[in-house]
Design a protein that fits this description.
By secondary structure, the chain is an alpha+beta fold. It has 3 helices and 9 strands; from the N terminus they run H-E-E-H-E-H-E-E-E-E-E-E. The strands form 2 sheets. Strands 4, 5, 6, 7, 8 and 9 form a 6-stranded antiparallel beta sheet that branches. A 3-stranded mixed beta sheet has the order 1-2-3, with helices on one face.
Length: 189
């Protein structure tokens, strides 16, 4: 099995997304793939070359920034087809991969990706996250608001005994550096 990508858990560990990079900062491979992804109105989170020599995996993570809906499968299929064709057009040598065989994987980061960038938090406004605040134990909190400096959270305090209603704290602002391992909690209606 190829090496799998593990996402950064906080903003200080996070590298900029490909779509956040200036065209001069992108590697040749990131520039090629980023242009295709962005041409479909999607956000290119990351381009990762993993795996072992002779068994390389080129993983491309795409997302939507403009709304909370995910990327539809048809869009992923179109992007995958275009990336594959562009890489084939490169000939025998592909930047960062060389002449080795590889497997192309295009996917979304998934719901288990920690929220580390402002647009991750913006996209999930109003949702419940499990988050470590100031390096403490993980707590559930609802995202109340997001700004350039951080996030305002309403902590969810479990009832004192099983079956007792939960309580909610007043909204409190946390800088991005104070937040880690923030994972969106899936809530079924």
């Amino acid at each position: 099995m190829a090496n799998r990508r593990s996402f950064a858990t906080n903003s200080s560990e996070s590298k900029p997304a490909v779509s956040e990079l200036d065209s001069m900062e992108r590697s040749e491979l990131q520039a090629l793939i980023g242009a295709i992804v962005e041409g479909h109105g999607l956000w290119c989170e990351e381009v990762v070359v993993g795996g072992a020599p002779g068994d390389r995996v080129l993983s491309v993570f795409v997302d939507r920034v403009d709304d909370s809906d995910g990327v539809i499968l048809d869009s992923i299929a179109e992007v995958t087809h275009e990336i594959s064709a562009a890489l084939d057009a490169q000939g025998d040598y592909i930047p960062e991969i060389g002449t080795e065989t590889y497997t192309l994987e295009v996917s979304t980061p998934g719901i288990d990706r920690p929220l580390v960038r402002q647009h991750h938090w913006d996209k999930n406004l109003g949702r419940v996250v499990n988050v470590m605040l100031d390096g403490g134990e993980p707590d559930d909190a609802k995202i109340h608001s997001v700004d350039d400096d951080g996030v305002e959270l309403v902590q969810i305090i479990p009832g004192a005994k099983k079956g007792m209603p939960v309580k909610y704290s007043d909204p409190e602002h946390y800088r991005y550096e104070q937040l880690s391992n923030a994972i969106v909690q899936v809530q079924l209606k």
